[in-house]
## 1
Amino acid sequence: MTDRSGFDQFVRARGPALARTAYLLTGDHHLAEDLVQAALAKAAQHWERIETSPEAYVRRTMYHQNISWWRRRRFTETALGSYDEPVAAADPSLRLTLEQALRRLTPRQRTVLVLRYFEDLTEVQTAAELGISSGAVKSMGRQALRRLRDLAPELADLVGADA
Amino acid sequence: MTDLRTSLRRVADAVEPLPVADDLWHRAQAARRRGQVLAAAAVLAIIASVTWSAVLLGTDDREARTASQEVPGGAIPSRIEDPGDLPATDDLAVGRASVAFVNRDGDPVVLTATDGVPHRLALPDWDRSRRALALTPDGTALAYQRTRGEDTVLVRVDLGSGRERVLFSQPGDSLTYDSLAWSSDGTRLSWSASTFGDVPAVGVVEPLLSRSRIVALPYTPTNAVVAPDGTLAISAANGALRLDSRQGGSTRIETQRSAVVAGFSPDGRYVALATGPASASYTLDVRRRVVVEHPFPEGTLGESVVRPVGWLDDRLQLLVVQALDGSGAELVVTTPEVDDTSTWRRSVGSVGGPGVANSLSVAVDLVPDLDGTSSQQLTHDFGEPVAVGQRDISWMIGLGVAAAIALGMALRWLWRRLLG
């Protein structure tokens, strides 16, 4: 199997799964597409070195890339304070779904939730993936769930069940 | 109600497959190759700059400056210029010199023969008001005067070893040597003094034989030169020329033009003459007792001041010619007069500034024998003068460029990393 065919095979087999994770990480289809493309491009550059376990490399690249992009964009993002106000439940059109609420977390908080509750990693594994301490993972996860509850009180049961 | 884990899966499962660009692999491989090329270039740049630095830092400035410009045996520089401010060196063992002159500050400067590097010499007791100095025709030694206590002393400095030797010492600081000149074979040093005690005088010192001869004069000399056989030629302030043989005979030679004796030819037949504005060079024919001339070829130099600085052989003399039109001074090789085998060759080299031209002393033995072709280089271009003690910043510029490249590449890497 050549490098190119191996890479194509990997993309075909694992592309949809990577896309799902990317969407949860970014909360946006376009950003998710960019994130997957960027991670796959890096994987292609180093394919000889990673072809035995490319998915771990691509996923880790996505996690870090997403946070890195956020760092670059953070100065243009709306202040978090405005997100913290709960939306009035009386207006059904403004009710936040889980998907919308996730978008209002910071990428770090979102990434921790995705790794913990979507990828089913332990706190130690999450910390290793992100290169931070287990305590930081625990703290960020707690903050993320609290924010979800604040942003969408109707999701309290959902979030509370795992908090 | 489902838990968060299930809800996340539900959200993710609703995502449609994302397109992946068909040329992603090719773009990634191209980027990889670019990165490899840049990395290789960076490594080469770093290796080159480190190697270059190591080589340059491991040698002194002089060696670095002249590594590719040294002339085995030495040569006369094609450009003889005052290098300006230089730190003075008290290590007089600078090596064989090609030229010596007094700079604008009144200090002695020599250019070393093999590399053309200028050295401002901190000669002991050098008196800026007594500027006479003379380089031997072979460039190995320098004669100058200094005052030691109450004595005026003529000193010979060996530029190879830096050792000094007193040639002549005369009590009394009222003595001032106005000029010093070596014979063409370097065995005799002649001098002239406007005040030697109560009278003017000229003299000859023979360092090898530790002998000296003094001739008191009833007139003020402008210069005195000595032939290898010991004959003195003296020019007077009134314009007259005299020949004074070792046997004591003195002959006055009438001339139509005011001239200063500048040097005997090796065979003693001619005495080159320094003259005021003219369109020719003049030479005293000792045998015929007449002054002969070699006019400048038509269309070359106009009215110029001529100062002979040595003889290349029995018939070729080296002149410093300063045109009155302000075009600067240049070295000219010529014969005493025009005949079937005469030579006149200009632009052999340039001399920067009248101060340098008026005090210039040249190691004429370093001029190669003429091969008869006009393309022959009689002097050597050593490049821009960089003196010992001055910082040669070329390597710093190189390192700076390498550092800038490395910094640029680091910033590029950082930028790409931040931008993903």
## 2
Amino acid sequence: MNLRIRLERRMHQRWWYSLLAPTSAIVAALCVGAVFLAVKGFDPVAVYRALFEASFTSLYGITDSLSVATPLIMTGLAAGIAFRMNLFNIGAEGQLYAGAIAGSWAGIALGKNLPPVLAVTAVLVLSVLGGMLFALPVAAFKAYLGTNEIITSLMLTFVGLYLMRFLIYGSTSFWRDPAVTNFPQGKKIANAAWLPLFGSYRTGWGLVLVVLVAFAVWALVKYTKVGYDMSVVGSSPAAARYAGIPSKRVVLGALLLSGGLGGLAGGVEVASRAHALDPNGLALGLGFSGIVVAALARYHPLGIIVVAVFLGGLRNAGAALQSMPGQRVPAEVSLMLQGAILLFAIGAEIFVRYRLHLVRRPAVTK
Amino acid sequence: MNNSAFVLMLAASMVAATPIALAALGELLAERSGVLNLGVEGMMLIGAVVAFQTGTKTGNLWVALLVGSLAGAALSAVHAVLTITLRASQIVTGLSLTIFGTGLATFVGKSIEGMPLAVDFRPTPWGPLADLPVIGPVLFKQDPIVYATIVLGFVIAFYLRRTRTGLSLRSVGESPATADSMGIPVALFRYIHVLLGGLLAGAAGAYLVLGQVPSWSQESTTGGLGWIALALVVFASWQPVRLLLGAFLFGFSRQLNFFLQGQGVAVPAELLSMLPYLLTIIVLVVWGSRDLRRRVGAPDALGIAYVRDER
């Protein structure tokens, strides 16, 4: 065995590679999924057809998929803005909870006394602040003490999760609905603080808002001095120092921005879907999936929209599968497929960027 | 006195600490080689569901433990190929592994949800030693896996500090380029230790159904233990013996909740559950600051793919 694999960076990436890679990843993941489905006695073709029909063929299906995609776009942006600077804030999940806590507070406390537009704005602004506040320890420790942000942001995610559960299940807090006694629930936010939906569909102004934010992030990264500073600090801290860019402040700002976007994901979820602080309905792994969305989109803000819509469709189809006539397919199939597609896509990404060589190892002379 | 609630809680803390310690010891090995694997939760779930099914089919505890561990290792092999050979981001790959593992385990486990498991690990009392006050039930009346885990912690400590291979492993995690120039096969070391990490995570998951609660449920079987294991590695600053002590502390904090409820003290469970994570942050910030990092901190090359030609 004197063969080894060598990777060589491609000088020119052919445009169709970036289409071929995700397509082959999806095909490969569907094949792997088919094996598991067949072993468990399901007909893979029927399951896949049901998946596709549930999410992408009817107007209701598509709009449902978009409503699942909405928070994924937001958490994808949160992860993307930090990851492209090599700042690994993996706590968008926790920042989403913090945003939901702060946003639902605004919706309950301020929503009644404000006109609709202002009430919604209050929810969203508070949720951004909540997310930022939750990212503050991550950002400050990273910028000024050099503490590993991967660990702090991951740990804070669980602090956020238990804080949210505490507020609803563990105490009679402001957020808990006093009228419901058998199973604790969050208090509903005022109607004025809801982000309206389109007619009878499940998606609405939340999606519009999120897409606008994606464009804003894209413009920030591409056209502003702040975006330029961020990319310099991210790619070469030494060059940033030489250019007189205040690296610490840029790191702090980028992580806070990332946290704010994660918080906004929580605010949008509360204002357009949950309408209360709902620990079960909010802890869906949206923050963690957002990281993968961002990575598959290569951290491009507009690419994130496309990837999120696809994954949103997959997640949405899970519920539809369960009601499939004849064979009751568990909803988790869609989670399994999602994971498989992600892993294959990560692998395929490498073939886009590198050329693989099998080389014979030269005989070593000592 | 050995039947007092407090002593029983201490004994239960040992059992609660065991899967956390097993998974964390595995993660410690992987991280010492420079590979962060955030897929612990997924590997544990797969280990648990596979061990449950093997246990039901064969009725043999040890076969179930072995097959569950191998299932964890199989999942970690995916991580190894993607991050070591193909240089994919360790963070993104690890998280995807958890998503895939959770989905697969739930899908496979759907048919066995709520079913009881006929076999489980039982505590074996050490004769008269088990009757000693306090330490009897805590130390001398546990199941074999509890002891195996403690021994394993010390073996890994010895391996890292006193053996040549262990020294090579540390150099691979601290400075792969230097290790490479010394003729140490960096990729091979990383593969082996990532696989060992998966094996132990699978074993931890298997122990959850074979030793703790003999039934399967995606919601409560791991209940985030994989993430606590990740925290524990940091909390113990990558030292195996400290990790064992930390595992007991984390296990204790999980049991404290039941104990306090029994005593009529109402401390919200949610706030107690936060403790391990908060403690980890504090440890990381206090001991992980720049000046001390060289002595107690993370392996220097943690999270970075090693590419010979680009150094």
## 3
Amino acid sequence: MNRFDYIRPASVPEAVAAAAVPGSTYLAAGTNLLDLMKVGTMRPERVIDITRLPGLDHIEWLADGSVRIGAMVRNSDLAYDARFARTFPAVAEALLSGASAQLRNAATVGGNLMQRTRCAYFHDLASACNRRMAGSGCDARDGENRLHAVLGWSEHCIATHPSDFCVPLVALDAVAEVEGPHGARDIPVDLLHALPGATPERETALAPGELIVALRLPSEAASFSGNARYLKLRERTSYAFAVVSAAAALEIEGGLIRKARIALGGVAAKPWRAREAEAALVDMPASTEAFTKAAELALADALPSGDNAFKIELARRIVVRALNLALEGTPEVMPALPASPFSTTAGATHVA
Amino acid sequence: MSPEIASRTTQPRRHGSNSGQPLTRRDGVLKVTGRATYAADNHPEGMLYAVTAISRIARGRVTALDVTAAKAHPGVVEILTPANRPPLSHDPEEKMLPFGFRVEVLQNDGVRYVGQPIALVIAETLEAATEGAALLNPQYEVADARTNLSNGDRFDTASVGIGMPARTAHGDIAVGLAAATHVIEADYVTPAQYHNAMEPHAVVAEWDGDRVTLDMPNQAMALSCASYAAYFGIPAENVLIRSPFLGGGFGSKAILNGPQILAILAARLLKRPVKLALTRAQMYGPVGHRGHTWQKLRIGTDSNGRLTALHHHALCATSSFDEFLEAAANASLPLYESPAILVEHEGLRLDTGTPGPMRAPGEASGSATLEVAMDEAAVACGMDPLEFRLANYAETEPGTGRPFSSKALRECYSEGAKRFGWAGRPIEPRQMRDENGFLVGWGMGTAVFHCPHFPAEARATLRADGTALVETAGADMGQGAWTALAQIAAEALGLDPDQVEFHSGVSSLPDGGIAGGSGHTASAGLALNNAGEDAIAKLAALATADPASPLFGAGNIGVVARSGRLHRLDDDGRSESYVEILARAGQAEVIGTAKAARDQEAAAAHAMFSHGAVFAEVKVDPDLGQIRATRLVGAFAAGRVINPRLVRSQYFGGMIWGASFALHEEAITDHRTGRIMNADLAEYHIPVNADVPSLDAILIEENDPYVNPLGIKGVGEIGITGTVGAVANAVWHATGVRVRRFPIRIEDLIIGWDTSRK
């Protein structure tokens, strides 16, 4: 990899100041960044190591029932925090369905929000990629694209966002707390990741130098704790990115749906919140029929970006399945294969 | 550190025969404590790091390299390009028999596949060498990439695999098809797959004058020494290869490759040790792969479900400049009786690296399609797949009528079926559900693999203290050669394994042959056995000629070696220890040697194969199409088993590989560029533990007096065969969807799937 300056700030303001210099990038666990630097997709001149910043590794419960998670909290620590997993079970399930145990032990909350697409053309320097190099073109468009986007894509980019974690976060109105050269601000996670449009190189709403310091889940999100699931379709049982995935959360009263939350993963350049589908479920009886209609609405605007029409049908089916699983209720204990369609299979005792 | 040091105190003391015992690996403690030294763990004083710059086009020419920029990078010492590469004594375009391939060692500016080395950067650090390679910024003259059936050049070939005939015909296939009541005809595709051994190809090369020491993982040390010697113009004995451990090889470490030759050349040029280790991505090109195949099968059956014709055609991809064609269709030769069998191969030239032998070469791809076709034929006949295979059981080798040296396949079928619970399986698909509503399917396949035997040599030294040193240049790729070979030697010497020091994995030892073709235990094992017997014979000669020995005069009767003593054959009470015999003779040691090879007469008279039967259960999500192999049961007959723990482990590994072939593995090529778009372990999927929840391997007893004097066949590769078809057939049985392209994907099951059929 290229030669770069390694900077280890002692405080968030120091970090933000260091990152204000062009060519800088933040380093957390490095589970994504270091791979990208090794293949040359990223060649930062300055690497700002934030792993030693004080105060970013706490899970803090606020008086109003919301929770504030420091950006440096490890994925495993968050998923196995008993209160968190009980309160936001779909988030814990999504975390445990991602990557491998070793990666989850290292990867951080903030890093997960910032992970880059797995599009092979983004990683292959010999390929044209508007996301990696603005204006160079998109070789995925007519390339190997069976796993690419079916929602919100443009002629300029058909990449998907790979995160599992972000899918239930978007469904539950999570908010990222950001500090930057011009002070602090909140960004809803749903607005953090950008659709490509004509500027796929602008991947997030963050301004240069801005740093995610924490993540908040609002207290209202806790009202779904009894009926919330994350479901992820994979081409092997573990350690694979989603072909499609869905987070579903319901608040049910007297057989009627009072509130519904639906988000899809693996279908777009951002975790895809399906608000119209949610609205269509409100005050409806919880039934497969209603869920099927919601799924139709969720995918109403879907279009294949290549050899991937099957993903649209799969996405519809996974929405129905996830809603049905949510209706059945959050499992008492985390399934041995979190988020897997096979998590109910008797004998499926392997921890993924 | 070598394994016998760690193993001395860890093995339980055994009495009597130790072969057949499930000893744990002698090198196990070293490996789990990180003390086993793999090639890239070596760091001689003054060592430099080499990194290859690789081509990102599939065909054309390198027109420019920014050597100035790369050389200016701090730490970069030298850059080899076609312009300055020192000469080699062997033409890399000339194939070196018996296993030589054409290699790319900067002989010109041509590019013939993606991933080909186009320069070698040598630097003081790995980081500097890597960045130096990145700074070369190659410019190309690009020619169109030939990457698939539509643009590759088809060609006729006389041979496939390594020297096998491309076409074999028994009987008249047209007559057989005309006589059939049912004919199934189907096309199948198997993808390119890459070995992906956990340990990358690495070498640490250090020259001393015209002698070179190579720390490298190597499956064929003696052959490699001769080949490197030819490239560098030195005698073969001047090349020392040290390969105590391999982190997997699967065939990819038996053949020389360009990057390693270049690193050795750089060490000679710069007069300093040089290390090169390929990155994962660099392993998709110059170090072989399992080639893409397109296969057609036609099977004719009569009204009793007996084959009337078996026609297997395989179109096999190779590179534009060399030939290694998967002998896929040959999988249809040894298994099923038919009055007419025709197997034939064609080649297809693509702009890829040359394919090479990859665990069960030929058989894996061919068995995959044959066993699915047999399943389709069984369905056409309305027969249970196992019943169908039994109806077509070959009592002698099909076509030739030669007897099998041994064949306990019937027992494999029956024991496997019993353990799996095959009886009562519905013939129709989509009949079974589990308690959670998942579709359940059961499928089976027959496993078969040939039993090659390579010439090998060994030495056994009985020492004055009653212990022994046995030596052969064997290769342990993880299969347990350090343990099983030592067991064979200990058995021959009448000693416990912990009294036997075993030296292996260094080319200066007697030639242990090739660790390939599932033939290493038989080949090196026979040499060790014979060397041990030779040492015992020499010791016996000392004792029986010595009037002071209780064995005096027993020369004609003979003696037997057991627990460190020689006993008279006719009187167990008269015995003497090795220590006493050597002490009285005043000898520090006796040395036995052996060169062993197969009895060619027995080989010509018999068909020699390992056999097995694999039964698979899969579950499929009825809406989402995700597939999981939930149970695999294999029963295998492979002659004598030296160490059942290691053998079972080989079967497990093979069966998991088979499930991987069926459901996961595939190199995805961008057909516009020839670039492999998933050249990493995150995206090139192999199974994780959760993908194969339950495995069972049954060892069927088999005594084979012909295959070799030890009766050992081979177990390293057979587990893949049979399994691929078994899993694919189970997917059909679960879903009713017949997928004829590997790996089976979710969309194969979802597209056109009528969900109302639940």
